[in-house]
Amino acid sequence: MKISKKDVLGVAELARLEFDDSQIDKFTSQFENIMKFISKLDELNTEEITPTSHVLEVSTPLREDIVSNWLTQEESLKNAPESDSGFFTVPKIIED
């Protein structure tokens, strides 16, 4: 696959990057080498390979859901610098 300067400029625009002419020439050559390497994968027979989303088996360990005692509202507010009607009071950050 032949990569052109136009292709590199298109990718650079999508990535919101700016390059000078010497960098564009360098990236054009590098992109072309990358595409040649990737095209070698097309030579592999993958018909009997099961698709995967991850090379290792990944599982999410879950803990057992056990009911336990929680703090009461009064205990939660005990260390609050300020509270009002059972709620934490915080400085206003939105102006009217």
What attributes characterize this protein structure?
96 residues, mainly alpha, 35% helix, 4% strand, elongated
Write the layout of secondary structure elements.
Layout (H helix, E strand, L loop, with lengths): L4 H10 L6 H19 L33 H5 L5 E2 L2 E2 L8
Antiparallel strand pairs: 1-2
Helix pairs in contact: 1-2
Task: Explain how this protein is built.
The protein has a domain at 5-43. 35% of the residues lie in helices and 4% in strands. It has helices at residues 5-14, 21-39, 73-77; strands at residues 83-84, 87-88. The protein has a two-stranded antiparallel ribbon. A hairpin with a 2-residue loop joins strand 1 and strand 2. Helix 1 packs across helix 2. The model has no long low-confidence stretch (mean pLDDT 89).
Query: First CA to last CA: what distance?
Result: 59 Å
Which spans have pLDDT < 50 for at least 5 consecutive residues? none
What portion of residues belong to β-strands? Answer: under 5%
Shape summary = elongated
- Radius of gyration from the alpha-carbon trace, in angstroms: 29 Å
How do the helices and strands follow one another from N- to C-terminus?
HHHEE
Total beta strands: 2
* Main beta sheet: 2 strands, antiparallel
Structural class: mainly alpha
Mean pLDDT: 89
Spatial order of strands in the largest sheet? 1-2
